[in-house]
Automatic annotation (TrEMBL), chain A:
The keyword Lyase applies. One of its GO terms (molecular function) is lyase activity. Keywords: Lyase. It comes from Pseudogemmobacter lacusdianii. The lineage of its organism: Bacteria, Pseudomonadati, Pseudomonadota, Alphaproteobacteria, Rhodobacterales. Pfam families: PhnI. This is Carbon-phosphorus lyase complex subunit PhnI.
From TrEMBL, chain B:
The keyword Nucleotide-binding applies. InterPro entries: AAA+_ATPase, ABC_transporter-like_ATP-bd, ABC_transporter-like_CS, P-loop_NTPase, PhnK. Pfam families: ABC_tran. This is Phosphonate C-P lyase system protein PhnK. Residues 17-257 form the ABC transporter domain. Keywords: ATP-binding, Lyase, Nucleotide-binding. CDD domains: ABC_NikE_OppD_transporters. NCBIfam families: CP_lyasePhnK. One of its GO terms (molecular function) is lyase activity.
From TrEMBL, chain C:
The lineage of its organism: Bacteria, Pseudomonadati, Pseudomonadota, Alphaproteobacteria, Rhodobacterales. This is Alpha-D-ribose 1-methylphosphonate 5-phosphate C-P lyase. Its EC number is 4.7.1.1. Signal peptide: none annotated. Transmembrane segments: none annotated. It comes from Pseudogemmobacter lacusdianii. It catalyses: alpha-D-ribose 1-methylphosphonate 5-phosphate + AH2 + S-adenosyl-L-methionine = alpha-D-ribose 1,2-cyclic phosphate 5-phosphate + methane + 5'-deoxyadenosine + L-methionine + A + H(+). Keywords: 4Fe-4S, Iron, Iron-sulfur, Lyase, Metal-binding, S-adenosyl-L-methionine.
């Protein structure tokens, strides 16, 4: 005999218990500590901080552990937690020119003041599985040399001295805040960059890649990519000056794009910009390409209808928490709507079949 | 193509375009059915009818944008439907031209006016920048676009100018056969009159053969030597333009003519 | 992990055979892009996976390999690829252009003329010269098939109308034996004349895009231009500050934060050879 489905509450409790058990895995295997995740899965932690828009490696590590390594789920946890935090103040803009760099490379010059610093990069590793890691081999210590202490000026600044790159007008305007105001279109560049800084890495990467393959091409070079730590300062009204309250790690990419210009206007390089929390190289390069592609109107370029040129398309779909929520909601019960459709389709089919019958007979 | 040239010299007095029993269906629905006519060198054929009459389907079959389901189509005695894709495309960029109703469909909007006119020249092998530019300047003049607009993009032009630019781009390689799909369609009445005037001059000066599709009887009155009236995919009446318009025989043609204000 | 776990030059023999078939086809139809089943390689797409696969397919134990990036043997990516082949094939390596039997390159053709028997392998990011005029592969393949290259000249026309000259400085398109328009990979247009009538075999590999194309020895390669705006190979108007050479392609190096610059040969082997022969430039240690 049919019994109506009840007992949702018990089912949910049981599902959660099962999930917790699965998360822990085999009890005979040692449990991961937050510190282990923070130290040994640092790039995952960085991605969660960047897309979660919250700089806290321990919380990001916790989110990764809780989410069983599902990074979008971890970003979700961080975003939800971020909502609960009171905002005391906004820092003064961080100065990436005075970054303590771990890595700094330019593709546009062979050498330049401050030097090319490879840093801890996968770039020139051969992607061969290192089975020694399976045997829990300790890594040999990397050689060290003292910091050179030389200034590391931005490449775009050097190009700017000769007027070779478009000037970036200084602005003291407080940008709109996506986390406090709804997204309004058209967006200015500051707002676009803000949205892209926390955008899904995969989405941003795919868009940037599409511009390289001709769907909104911008002829980008990595003018400079730098990763390192910058000081965060806040102005204290009581003191009347800014005080350093800590450091954060950032990845900054400035792309240098092929010139615009015409017979009357001398050609100049143009800029794309990416800045991301933590060591998030792929994301910051992607961001700078997408930023540049979105600037077509301001630079007098043609809209060829490429996805990466469509501000509304990009900004409306770049947030993976919005996307995953809406995507996954279609697994929620929809049977009331579906029942209505079911009846409609049945009726239409019956009518169509009835209409065909006389012809078949004839 | 060699074969085509040989036949061309042998058949100078023959029709330029010959259409026999052309039909095109969309599933069970008729696009156009059993259309036949000959077009002779220097002749302008108008095809009129309301939307859905099949005139646009017929034009796109003639121009090679769609493949007819039945019937024959020969150009200068050559079976066009049997041409390879390469031969067909070569024909499209040398001997034939196509003027779209919406100039955006016929122009490269991101390319300057000069580049738009020059493209067909370059496609058939022109490799002298100065000469290409001179020819483009000359053609802009012939369609009444100021020479100093040569480096501007069509997006900066008015609708009427865009349409004139499209015409220059099509005629620059001196095609023999031009297909026109409502060339005055989206334009203001005053702009239409000027464009028609220009078209009439060009068609006469260049001795073009034209197949023009329109719903506007004033356009065919001015341009066409002969007329075909289409309804529901069929040709219901054909003849000399003045004859058909002044003394329509078919009830549908009578309706069409009487629905236009007499000028 | 032991390197014996991998076949000579990393790829298995079946994969190499597939690559060699594509290479032979490419050599038989110069300038035509031959699709091939590109493999995942242990370096990222865009870093030379196409070139590496082509090199792996050509390499024999008696070869002497040279790898350059931007003309230099000591750039990081060149070092990385050279090491990869040393590790996986054990072949001899060299920096001397004349001594190499296979040269894998990114973005340059060596200054010293190549000779018969040498193979130059180019890494190619976007093999399709029409890609930025028409993004769709189905359409560009048709354009090649039908030799519809008018649009390419429209691009050059627009450049001249806008800038007074063709504003393509690298990856400058060429026509091969009067038939296929080809992307010479992002070499500066300064290098384009060296493509023509070269005694060496020139092979082009694009891994991510799964295309191989080639120029057999002594192939006619013409840079696209207009009769009244002929193609011009250009470079910085300087001499090398280390070896004094006035005819080689130069890198610009920023030397301080005031924006001071020096110019040096991008071909490091060429420059070092000249310096060893006693040539001096403006900033040579002895001259300064």
């Amino acid at each position: 005999m049919y019994v109506a489905v009840k007992g949702g509450e018990r089912a949910i409790d049981a599902a959660h218990a099962w999930l917790a058990e699965e998360r822990r895995g085999d009890l005979a295997i040692a449990e991961l500590s937050i510190a282990q995740i923070r130290e040994q899965l640092a790039l995952a932690v960085n991605r969660v901080m960047a897309e979660g828009s919250l700089y806290d490696p321990d919380l990001a590590a916790l989110a990764i552990k809780q989410a069983r390594g599902d990074l979008i789920e971890a970003v979700f946890l961080i975003r939800a937690y971020r909502t609960t935090l009171p905002r005391f103040t906004a820092s003064t803009p961080v100065d990436t020119a005075s970054m303590t760099v771990d890595r700094r490379v330019s593709a546009t010059f062979k050498d330049l003041p401050g030097g090319q610093i490879l840093g801890p990069t996968f770039d020139y590793t051969h992607r061969l599985l290192d089975f020694a890691l399976m045997a829990e081999g300790e890594a040999p210590a990397a050689p060290r040399s003292p910091a050179i202490g030389e200034a590391v000026p931005h490449v775009t600044e050097l190009l700017d001295q000769d007027g070779l790159i478009e000037a970036e007008p200084f602005s003291d305007l407080t940008p709109r805040d996506l986390t406090r105001e709804p997204l309004e279109l058209p967006a200015d560049r500051a707002l676009r960059l803000q949205a892209l800084a926390r955008a899904d890495e995969g989405f941003t990467l795919a868009l940037a890649y599409s511009t390289q393959r001709g769907y909104g091409r911008t002829h980008a070079f990595v003018g400079e990519l730098r990763i390192g730590r910058v000081a965060v300062e806040v102005e204290l009204p009581e003191l009347g000056f800014a005080v350093e309250i800590g450091e954060i790690e950032l990845t900054e990419c400035e792309s240098v794009n092929q010139f615009k210009g015409s017979k009357i206007e001398p050609p100049q390089f143009t800029r794309g910009y990416g800045l991301v929390l933590g060591q998030s190289e792929r994301k910051s390069i992607s961001m700078s390409l997408v930023d540049r592609a979105l600037r077509w109107k301001e630079l007098g370029e043609d809209n060829i209808g490429a996805p990466a040129q469509d501000e509304e398309f990009v900004l409306s779909h770049c947030d993976n928490i919005q996307a995953t929520g809406f995507l996954e909601h279609i697994k929620l019960p929809h049977y009331v709507d579906f029942q209505a459709e079911l009846e409609l389709v049945r009726r239409l089919r019956a009518e169509a079949i009835a209409a065909q019958k006389p012809e078949d007979a004839a | 193509m060699v074969m085509m040239e040989r036949q061309l010299s042998a058949q100078a007095a023959a029709p330029l375009l010959s259409v026999q029993g052309l039909s095109r269906y969309y599933g069970a629905r008729i696009g156009c059915k059993d259309v036949s006519f000959d077009l002779y060198p220097g002749e302008v054929m108008g095809i009129v009818g309301e939307s859905g009459s099949g005139k646009s389907t017929l034009l796109s079959c003639l121009a090679g944008h769609q493949r007819p389901d039945a019937g024959g189509l020969s150009y200068n005695g050559v079976d066009v439907l049997a041409l390879s894709e390469a031969e067909r495309r070569r024909l499209l960029r040398s001997d034939w031209a196509y003027v779209h109703q919406n100039p955006r469909d016929g122009l490269r909007m991101g390319v300057s006016a000069g580049g738009n006119v020059g493209e067909r020249l370059m496609a058939v092998g022109a490799r002298h920048y100065g000469q290409i530019r001179d020819t483009a300047t000359d053609w802009l003049g012939r369609v009444e676009i100021a020479a100093e607009r040569i480096d501007d993009r069509p997006s900066a032009f008015s609708g009427g100018m865009q349409q004139r630019l499209q015409i220059a781009r099509n005629l620059v390689t001196a095609p023999k056969l031009v297909f026109m799909d409502e060339p005055t369609g989206g334009l203001d009445v005053s702009v239409q009159a000027r464009l028609l005037d220009l078209l009439r001059g060009l068609v006469r000066d260049l001795g073009l053969s034209v197949v023009i599709v329109t719903h506007d009887l004033a356009v065919v009155r001015l341009l066409a030597d002969r007329l075909m009236v289409m309804k529901s995919g069929h040709v219901v009446e054909a003849g000399l333009t003045d004859q058909v318009l002044d003394d329509p025989q078919h009830a549908y043609t009578q309706l069409l003519v009487s629905s236009v204000l007499q000028v | 992990m032991t390197d014996q776990a991998y076949n000579f030059a990393y790829l298995d023999e079946q994969t190499k055979r597939m690559l060699r078939r594509a290479l032979l086809k490419a050599l038989a139809v110069p300038g035509y892009q031959v699709p091939f089943a590109s493999r995942e390689m242990p370096m990222p797409y865009g870093w030379g996976t196409g070139g590496v696969q082509v090199t792996a397919a050509c390499l024999t134990p008696v070869d002497r390999l040279k790898v350059i990036d931007q003309g230099a043997d000591d750039t990081t990516n060149a070092v990385s690829i050279r090491r990869f082949f040393q590790r996986t094939s054990g072949v001899a390596v060299t920096e001397a252009t004349a001594e190499a039997t296979i040269i894998q390159t990114r973005h340059r053709i060596p200054e010293q003329p190549l000779s018969e028997g040498q193979i130059l392998v180019y890494q190619v990011p976007i093999p399709e010269p029409l890609r930025f005029l028409e993004p769709r592969e189905t359409e560009t393949r048709k354009m090649h098939e039908l030799e519809e290259y008018g649009l390419m000249h429209v691009k050059l026309y627009e450049d001249i109308a806008r800038h007074g000259e063709v504003s393509t400085a690298y990856a400058y398109p060429v026509k091969v034996e009067g038939r296929y328009v080809m992307d010479p990979s992002p070499i500066p247009k300064f290098d384009n004349p060296k493509l023509n009538d070269s005694p060496a075999i020139q092979l082009f590999g694009a891994g991510r895009e799964c295309r191989i194309y080639a120029l057999p020895p002594f192939t006619k390669v013409v840079s696209l231009d207009f009769d009244d705006h002929p193609f011009q190979a250009s470079k910085a108007e300087h001499n090398c500050d280390l070896c004094g050479c006035g005819t080689s392609y130069l890198d610009e190096v920023i030397t301080d934060d005031q924006g001071s610059r020096m110019f040096v040969c991008s071909d490091t082997d060429f420059c070092a050879t000249r310096q060893a022969e006693g040539h001096r430039g403006r900033l040579s240690p002895e001259a300064a």
